[in-house]
Amino acid sequence: MRIAVPNKGRLHEPTIDLLERAGLHIENGADRKLYAETVDPDVTILFARAADIPEYVADGAADLGITGLDQVREAQTDRVEELLDLEFGRCRLVLASPEDGDIDAVADLAGKTVATEFPNVTREFFDDAGIEPDIVEVTGATELTPHVEMADAIVDITSTGTTLRMNNLGVVADVLSSSVHLFARDDVADDPKVREIQTALSSVLSADGKRYLMMNVPRDDLEDVREVIPGLGGPTVMDVANGEGEKVAVHAVVDERDVFETITEVKNAGASDILVTEIERLVE
Ligand SMILES: Nc1ncnc2c1ncn2[C@@H]1O[C@H](COP(=O)(O)OP(=O)(O)OP(=O)(O)O)[C@@H](O)[C@H]1O
Ligand SMILES: O=P(O)(O)OC[C@H]1O[C@H](OP(=O)(O)OP(=O)(O)O)[C@H](O)[C@@H]1O
Ligand SMILES: [Mg+2]
């Protein structure tokens, strides 16, 4: 199995970090390398440009890909399946125009020009709206084009909104919400190895914001403690060795934001020796 991941840019680091946390440690992945092995002899990493990754997967150069949903949609291939939202690289593709201009609505773009790095997504958007502007493809600095009379509006990525503001552009309409996704070529999407990788990545996301709580509880107080423990299923209850049956150990997965309150409550209910630890992965 080959997984294509971004070789640079803002998605590179968080993608590598996620693979590491999922247990897919990358070996000899020195800078500027095209390939790297992982601890799993069946999994190889291929480094590619974020925008090229969907093509690599569709064409068979890689089997799985990790990149922005915007790039997957722009590639317009029906050969890739979206498997998992990896919940980072969140941004919006928006239609934006100069604040002081006369474009206030999508319909105002009939017969006008729109510049974008995403011509396919943009064309689809205007087709749906029944409007036919000229679409000019650019490869960067899209925000500049309305100010040099190259375009009347742009379709571009925004997240904090700083770039649009700095260039005196306002959002006219939302085109697409994007975040980084795991996707696979359709003919391998059901492969057991692909499922294994998907589960490993998803287990990291599931563990995010969760804590593991352990405590000892006198058997008589067990019901009171059980009642104040929120979260994932019931707690696990085990006999404590040498506890002579009077105490039990209670383990539970709790949302990080509930930990503070829960500790106070279980303590009041009779728990002692309370431990809180991080969770690396959680397969539900
Ligand atoms: N400001 C942003 N906030 C959040 N995610 C973003 C932002 N800009 C881009 N992205 C996401 O990251 C992806 C790749 O963008 P990035 O800027 O890292 O690469 P790039 O500029 O296309 O790389 P290259 O330099 O190879 O052209 C985008 O397709 C999008 O999914
Ligand atoms: O809403 P904001 O937080 O300002 O983010 C939006 C900007 O981020 C991206 O550019 P990037 O920083 O990747 O630079 P690039 O043009 O070199 O890709 C995108 O192309 C926008 O220009
Ligand atoms: Mg960029």
Automatic annotation (TrEMBL):
Pathway named in the protein's UniProt entry: Amino-acid biosynthesis; L-histidine biosynthesis; L-histidine from 5-phospho-alpha-D-ribose 1-diphosphate: step 1/9
Domain Histidine biosynthesis HisG C-terminal, chain residue ranges per copy: 207-281
EC number of this enzyme: 2.4.2.17
Annotated localization: Cytoplasm
UniProt keyword annotations, A-Z: Amino-acid biosynthesis, ATP-binding, Cytoplasm, Glycosyltransferase, Histidine biosynthesis, Magnesium, Metal-binding, Nucleotide-binding, Transferase
InterPro entries: ATP-PRT_HisG_long (IPR020621), ATP_PRibTrfase_cat (IPR013820), ATP_PRibTrfase_HisG (IPR001348), HisG_C (IPR013115), N-reg_PII-like_a/b (IPR011322), N-reg_PII/ATP_PRibTrfase_C (IPR015867)
GO BP, sorted A to Z: L-histidine biosynthetic process
Activity regulation (UniProt): Feedback inhibited by histidine.
Gene Ontology cellular-component annotations: cytoplasm
Cofactor names: Mg(2+)
Record keyword Cytoplasm present: yes
Span of domain ATP phosphoribosyltransferase catalytic: 49-201
Record field: transmembrane: none
EC main group: transferase
Known catalytic reactions: 1-(5-phospho-beta-D-ribosyl)-ATP + diphosphate = 5-phospho-alpha-D-ribose 1-diphosphate + ATP
GO terms for MF: ATP binding; ATP phosphoribosyltransferase activity; magnesium ion binding
Pfam family for this entry, one: HisG_C
Function, in words: Catalyzes the condensation of ATP and 5-phosphoribose 1-diphosphate to form N'-(5'-phosphoribosyl)-ATP (PR-ATP). Has a crucial role in the pathway because the rate of histidine biosynthesis seems to be controlled primarily by regulation of HisG enzymatic activity.
Family designation: Belongs to the ATP phosphoribosyltransferase family. Long subfamily.
UniProt-recorded name of the protein: ATP phosphoribosyltransferase
Encoding gene per record: hisG
